[in-house]
Design goal:
The strands form two sheets. A four-stranded parallel β-sheet has the order 2-1-3-4, with helices on one face. The chain folds into two domains: 167 residues, Rossmann fold, CATH 3.40.50; 112 residues, Nitrogenase molybdenum iron protein domain (Rossmann fold), CATH 3.40.50. It is of the alpha/beta class. The protein is 43% helix and 11% strand. The structure holds zinc ion. The site of zinc ion (ZN) has 7 residues, from loops. Zinc ion binds next to loops.
């Protein structure tokens, strides 16, 4: 008994120093989990199956945000549902907003769309507005692993070496994954693709894919009749090879749009990983899942 008490007394201070970290979405949670390794597990806010643009925190989650030592999130551009919980944190509480962080590559919506897409009937596109889906570029994930390790080391200097070592191993893992996905997608780079919501610009830019448009805008709000009519005309005109539904949205609309056009309906994409098991492996599963779903449809 005395032995156990002695052990607890010596073990507790080191454990107490590991920051209590809250994250917004599964890919950010996965990156933080890799950097923390065996030292601790971050909390994930976005529920399984939920839409990253339209979510409501439970009161217990809002308290977790308020009481956390560190929030790692993309930023207010992606998750307005986090704004009031973030505002409830004490002045000077640590937060790492990744989209706005130094070294993050950023893009605007529509930047990857071909010239003339405007005339093909898209209505209300927010071209040029900030695209917050920056985790879909693995180069950003690589930059973020370093930033997360630096921030954790600042809050918990005793474990700095562990955070840095874990981040370096995770960077190597992303490099290997990236090479594998680039090879998988190389044969379909000339195939014209349409996605459900405009979330894949970073992914398309990174792997050189031809993204011809999307059913819904970047915030995944319901598309209007004019936008749908324009997209249907684009599909009927030919050239588009695959149209992809998404896991959080009913595929009926996508199937209806593609019907009779000869455009193949691919598997459901999951841009935020809300269908995946949360954990350190979710980042690789997320990117790999998107790449395989695209390749499976477009390579036929
Ligand atoms: Zn989105």
């Amino acid at each position: 008994m005395r032995y156990i008490i002695t052990f607890l007394l010596t073990a507790t201070p080191a454990l107490a120093d590991v920051p209590n970290v809250v994250t917004d979405i599964p890919p950010v949670h996965a990156l933080v989990a890799q950097v923390m390794g065996d030292l601790g597990a971050p909390e994930l806010l976005l529920a399984k199956g939920a839409d990253e643009h339209d979510f409501q925190l439970k009161p217990s989650q809002a308290s977790a945000v308020a009481d956390s030592d560190l929030v790692v999130w993309i930023g207010p551009e992606l998750t307005p549902w986090l704004d009031s919980a973030m505002a409830s944190r004490p002045e000077g509480a640590a937060a790492l907003a990744l989209l706005d962080a130094e070294g993050t590559a950023r893009r605007g919506y529509g930047a990857a769309e071909p010239q003339g897409a405007e005339e093909s009937g898209h209505d209300g596109d927010d071209h040029g507005a900030e695209d917050p889906h920056a985790w879909l570029d693995p180069d950003n994930a690589t930059v973020w692993l370093g930033l997360i390790a630096t921030e954790l080391a600042r809050l918990d200097p005793e474990n700095a070496v562990t955070y840095e070592t874990n981040a370096a191993a995770a960077v190597d893992g992303i490099a290997a994954l990236d090479a594998e996905l680039a090879a998988l997608l190389a044969p379909v780079r000339d195939k014209s693709l349409v996605t459900f919501h405009e979330a894949f610009g970073y992914f398309g830019d990174h792997y050189g894919l031809k993204l011809a448009g999307s059913v819904a805008l970047g915030d995944a709000s319901s598309p209007g009749a004019a936008r749908l009519a324009g997209l249907r005309a684009e599909l009927e005109a030919g050239g588009v090879v695959c149209l992809f539904p998404e896991v959080q949205h009913d595929p009926a609309l996508v199937e209806q749009l593609a019907e009779g056009t000869g455009v193949r309906v691919g598997g459901a994409l999951d841009p935020v990983g809300s269908s995946l098991e949360a954990g350190p492996g979710a980042y690789a599963a997320l990117l790999g899942g998107i790449a395989r779903t695209i390749a499976d449809c477009a390579a036929q």
